[in-house]
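User: I'm designing a mutation panel for Haloacid dehalogenase and want to avoid disrupting the core. Could you give me a predicted structure to guide residue selection? Please restate the sequence first so the numbering is unambiguous.

Assistant: Good idea. Sequence first, for numbering, then the predicted structure tokens:
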Amino acid sequence: MSNTLTQQIIFDLDDTLVHCNIYFDQILDEFTELLSGWFANTGITAQEIRAKQIEIDIAGVEQIGFISTHFPESLIETYRYFSRLLGLDAGFAQEEQLMKLGMSVYDREIEAYPGMTQTLNLLRSQGHQLHLYTGGESVIQQRKIDQMRLTDYFGERIYIRRHKNVDALEEILTSGSFDRSRTWMIGNSLRTDIMPALSAGIHSIYIKRPNEWSFNLVELKHDAKSDMYTISALEEIPSVIANKLSLSSYSGVKQSAAGSN
């Protein structure tokens, strides 16, 4: 495959290649049930508990990034909020229980999304260069990478950052040998994957997942300097890229023919 057809493809990890949100949702279900019991007969609803936790969670991620203790701390802060609202003292034992519950999310067995290995194998066999870019703490993210044996596909081209934003992606692109005209960002987050990719002028593929985390949903401004595609499954990625390359090749042929007339 010629260099013009070889693409540099950057994959997000969580909820792009492997499941993530489902484990947090399971913990939040347990958390909501706990608080509903602790605050029974007070008028506090499960919906109010979930809404407040989301508010606290998102505010914290925007400020400090993806660190492991933030999620359990958001559970504790939600408990403290409703305790203050009701004029109650927050209990140390309850807070300890919430910390353990929140941290347990990182002990869950990681499960790949359908089509992960087939898609990565196909793209690699086609000569594309694969990269992995994920947000979080190195120890936790590396455990997922090792469990899924993802270094077989990405080698040393793995980037773990606490913050995933425009600046973080720009630093990766400028410090590496990326040709932006043939670089792709693939991920499930409009905020941390697609918006930075559009800002950087690289192509992007948005994998739309059901029940997406509110933090990931933002309104995009796409100025058409780069292409953006929306799909629902990993298996669609190779055909999207192949179709883009076919159109580019056809356009190049037309321009060449026009120039020779």
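For picking mutation sites, this is relevant: Residues 173 and 211 are 30 Å apart (CA to CA). The first helix runs from residue 21 to 38.
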